[in-house]
Amino acid sequence: MKNLMIRHDCSSLLAVNGCLLLMLSFNSLASSETDYKANGWHVGINLGQSSAKIDGDSIKANLENTGFDVNALNQDRHDQGYKLYAGYKFSSYFVLEAGYFDLGRFSFNANTLPVSNYTGRTGVKGWNLDLVGILPISDSWSVLARVGVTRNDTKTRFSSNGLINTSVNNQDNSYTKHKFGLGVQYDISDAFIVRLEAERYRMDDLVGNDGDVDLYTLGVVYRFGSRQPQPVPTTTPEPLTRVATEQVTQASPVIPEPEVLVLEDVHFNFDTAELNNDTKVMLRRHATTLKANPKARVRIAGYTSASGSAAYNQALSERRAESIKAFLVSEGINANRFKTIGFGQRNPAKYEAKPSALQSDAAKANMRGLFEIIIE
After folding, report:
1. Which of 180, 183, 194 minimizes the C-alpha distance to 42?
2. Which of 1, 131, 237, 353 is the most exposed place for a label (fewest CB within 10 A)?
């Protein structure tokens, strides 16, 4: 007897297609930023409401075909559900998550004549592996889409007062299905995220019918290692220091040993090593200071923001350092007094929580050239 049935909703196919299209759009965006591991490992827990689709019409028809009049069919299609998961963010836009879920228990009770006390109950739990695409829409908000496979464990039990033989339908079953979902998330801090998600888990009832269970949850995610250590100054033969622009306004007299000159950092626009007019004015002041201090040698270190690949950023940082050197040489400073080095995106001045936010204060702070002045 077909006792407990869950309908296959054709709209789920449309939802799968929409989810896959959103995944493809994430992939096209991710191609512009490679080799960037934003946050690494994380764990999370989601709690919420689950909802099953019980095919009451089929249950009623089966009972009537066996000689029962069905006065009412009471359904309990909702329960609490949860999921526990761990994940790894392997690019700016993609995460792999694995976890355990429990969708709850669902049941029905048929009010029949003759009185049968006919009841069915089923529960669904299991394991999943998901590919999650995450698209930032602001500094704190992101949308996400997921597609995954599940290993479902279902347990179904039927009972009556003896008028219906239910023992043949009591089964435990395990099988592989798929799932998909959409959601939004909000970054509370570097370490904690809040997620709101809607997911659809495909499942079988135990009489060979396809169906699904929807899970709507609110969750919290903890990211490991999202806070990066403060940059460590590069070791030099003598101490170095940096100050704001207004502290270097005119040529300094020759500074006796072991004092150290003070020069301001130079900042660049995104993805360029070109000097703008304001930067050239600042470097001319630096050139005047260096001319007044002929014993001073300079190491110019170039840096970049976190956006882009490590190899590209390394080359860009070297070009930035060379650009500063070339300008100072053109202002009459001997080239032998300079040494240049590029650090790429290493040792940032500020941690960039979202490398894709190219105009953030952290990104602008990291696109720089640093002066290290040594008095011999």
Report:
1. 194
2. 237
